[in-house]
């Protein structure tokens, strides 16, 4: 997508009547959401929705290339770009594949991914500079030293960006990651994992696993020293939230099912079990790739994501990267794998022994899948902190920082990262407890909810819903573009 001023003018000029109509309906209290949103929020969400619901979408490759444009580095952030080398040994991939295979209940097809180096960005907060201050002309190692000079906490957030698994990279999340670093007094390692459809499941999960191990066991010549697992918090938004939660489920599966006693990584041998991170902070995590839950239609009026009713047979125009060869039915994975627990973590049946989970959703299309996971994990003894904000859309805390709901959500995410790391390190043992909270629109008035009772259906009903949705996709009754942005 061309983002030059003339192109933006061509994009937004036709929407002027739409914006005027939205403002008029809101002012006359004719909008169904006017009691929940202020005018600025209503216009913003409606514009985003209209941009993401193009009946004649551009190709996946064009959208991917547009989303990967680097906005540059300036202002209140330290960025140090690194490449995490792939190990000569294949143990990392082998233990991942063992976990994938051990969790397949009714078959499923996937390709064995190659081990590849993983690019990432160390991100920190740069104090006492203007928002337009340019990046210093230093080496990446010197930038890392500058970053670390302002870090006063051991909290290390391993961050996975969103983008529906096929768009974006760490450059798009520099501002949120620098804010998290500032609020925690720590640092973020933001991962440039491989994108679909070119690199389908489990490529991104393998990259996430390699990044995690590289924090705990730094490869030779790394800028960083070993990071204790108790100081690492996994975090991500949307598809990145999926990776964060899937990585924890994969670690749990390796630890409970692997027959190995050790694994090799960059020439050294390490014992199993693999230590879990301190916690996971998921911002509207997309954890049901089958898109089968009731909220994907019931909450459509509050979200900007395109609901399935807009075009249930939605498909993307063919280009160099899609359809895949051989065809596979879904952008992220083969359609036969859609209900696999490491593809759709909501399908995971055992969360026993998991680290604490912090989950935030709006009243959005993805809310019900989060409720299902939160409820099951809480019932199995996991510390789950659940937050839902009335009438807020997908990933609202990263977009609406002018709203108290957005500010509160982001502050609480950072506070969880700090508290859970302190708790895991034994500094504030027992400070985290299961808690569910509903925040009212506009006022953010809090109402307690029982996390264990959040589920919208039984576990058996969930399995059937996911299986039916998977079969519909495999038979071609639904398109691969269901719920995905279409620019």
Q: How far apart are the termini?
A: 8 Å
| Average of pLDDT | 94
Shape: globular
Question: Total number of β-strand segments?
Answer: 12
- What proportion strand? 5-15%
What gyration radius follows from the Cα positions, in whole Å?
A: 22 Å
Secondary structural class: alpha/beta
Largest sheet: 10 strands, mixed
Low-confidence stretches: none
Fraction of residues in H or I helices? 25-40%
Helix-strand string = HHHHEHEHEHEHEHEEEHEHEHEEH
Helical stretch count? Answer: 13
Read across the widest sheet, the strand sequence of neighbours is 1-2-4-3-5-8-9-10-11-12
Quick structural overview:
The chain is α/β, with parallel strands linked by helices and 487 residues long. The chain contains 13 helices and 12 strands.
What structural keywords apply?
alpha/beta, single chain, two-stranded antiparallel ribbon, globular, 13% strand
Secondary structure elements and their pairing?
Layout: H1 5-12, H2 16-27, H3 39-52, H4 60-67, E1 78-84, H5 91-102, E2 118-124, H6 140-149, E3 156-160, H7 174-184, E4 187-192, H8 203-216, E5 232-237, H9 239-257, E6 262-265, E7 268-271, E8 279-283, H10 295-298, E9 357-361, H11 367-379, E10 384-389, H12 404-424, E11 435-439, E12 446-449, H13 459-474
Parallel strand pairs: 3-4, 3-5, 5-8, 8-9, 9-10, 10-11
Antiparallel strand pairs: 1-2, 2-4, 6-7, 11-12
Helix pairs in contact: 2-3, 5-9, 7-12, 8-9
Report on this model:
By secondary structure, the chain is an alpha/beta fold. Helix content is 33%, strand content 13%. It has 13 helices and twelve strands. The protein has helices at residues 5-12, 16-27, 39-52, 60-67, 91-102, 140-149, 174-184, 203-216, 239-257, 295-298, 367-379, 404-424, 459-474; strands spanning 78-84, 118-124, 156-160, 187-192, 232-237, 262-265, 268-271, 279-283, 357-361, 384-389, 435-439, 446-449. It has a ten-stranded mixed sheet with strand order 1-2-4-3-5-8-9-10-11-12, with helices on both faces. It has a two-stranded antiparallel ribbon with strand order 6-7. A hairpin with a 6-residue loop joins strand 11 and strand 12 (446-449). The longest helix is centred in the C-terminal third of the chain and has 21 residues, at 404-424. The protein is globular, with a radius of gyration of 22 Å. The N and C termini lie close together (8 Å). The mean pLDDT is 94.
């Amino acid at each position: 997508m061309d983002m030059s001023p003339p192109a933006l003018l061509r994009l937004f000029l036709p929407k002027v009547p739409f914006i005027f109509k939205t403002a008029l309906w809101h002012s006359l209290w004719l909008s169904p959401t006017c009691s929940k949103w202020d005018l600025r929020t209503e216009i913003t969400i409606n514009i985003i929705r209209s941009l993401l619901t193009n009946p004649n979408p551009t190709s996946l490759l064009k959208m991917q290339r547009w989303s990967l444009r680097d906005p540059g580095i300036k202002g209140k952030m330290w960025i140090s770009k690194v490449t995490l080398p792939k190990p000569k040994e294949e143990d990392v991939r082998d233990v991942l594949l063992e976990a994938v295979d051990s969790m397949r209940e009714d078959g499923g097809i996937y390709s064995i991914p190659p081990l590849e180096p993983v690019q990432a960005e160390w991100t920190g907060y740069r104090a006492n500079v203007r928002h337009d201050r340019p990046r210093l002309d230093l080496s990446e190692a010197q930038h890392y030293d500058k970053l670390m000079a302002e870090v006063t906490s051991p909290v290390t957030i391993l961050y996975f960006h969103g983008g529906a698994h096929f768009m974006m990279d760490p450059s798009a999340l520099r501002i949120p990651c620098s804010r998290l670093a500032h609020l925690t007094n720590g640092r973020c390692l933001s991962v440039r994992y491989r994108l679909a459809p070119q690199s389908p499941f489990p490529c991104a999960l393998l990259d996430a696993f390699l990044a995690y191990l590289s924090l705990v066991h730094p490869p030779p010549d790394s800028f960083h020293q070993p990071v204790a697992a108790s100081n690492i918090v996994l975090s991500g938004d949307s598809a990145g939230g999926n990776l964060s939660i899937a990585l924890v489920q994969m670690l749990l599966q390796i630890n409970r099912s692997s027959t190995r006693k050790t694994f090799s990584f960059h020439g050294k041998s390490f014992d199993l079990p693999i230590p879990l991170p301190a916690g996971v902070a998921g911002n509207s995590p997309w954890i049901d790739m089958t898109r089968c839950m009731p909220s994907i239609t019931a909450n459509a009026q509050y979200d900007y994501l395109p609901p399935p009713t807009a075009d249930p047979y939605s498909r993307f125009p063919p280009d160099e990267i899609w359809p895949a060869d051989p065809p596979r039915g879904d952008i992220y994975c083969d359609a036969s794998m859609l209900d696999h627990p490491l593809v759709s973590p909501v399908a995971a049946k055992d969360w026993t022994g998991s680290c604490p989970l912090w989950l935030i959703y709006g009243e959005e299309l993805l809310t019900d899948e989060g409720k299902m996971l939160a409820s099951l994990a809480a019932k199995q003894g996991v510390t789950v902190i659940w937050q839902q904000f009335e009438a807020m859309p997908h990933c609202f805390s990263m977009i609406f920082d002018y709203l108290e709901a957005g500010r509160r959500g982001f502050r609480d995410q950072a506070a969880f990262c700090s508290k859970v790391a302190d708790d895991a390190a034994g500094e504030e043992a027992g400070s985290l407890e299961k808690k569910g909270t509903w925040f009212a629109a506009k006022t953010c008035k809090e109402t307690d909810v029982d996390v264990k009772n959040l589920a919208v259906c039984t576990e058996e009903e969930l399995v059937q819903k996911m299986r039916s949705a998977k079969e519909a996709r495999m038979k071609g009754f639904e398109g691969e573009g269901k719920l995905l942005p279409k620019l």
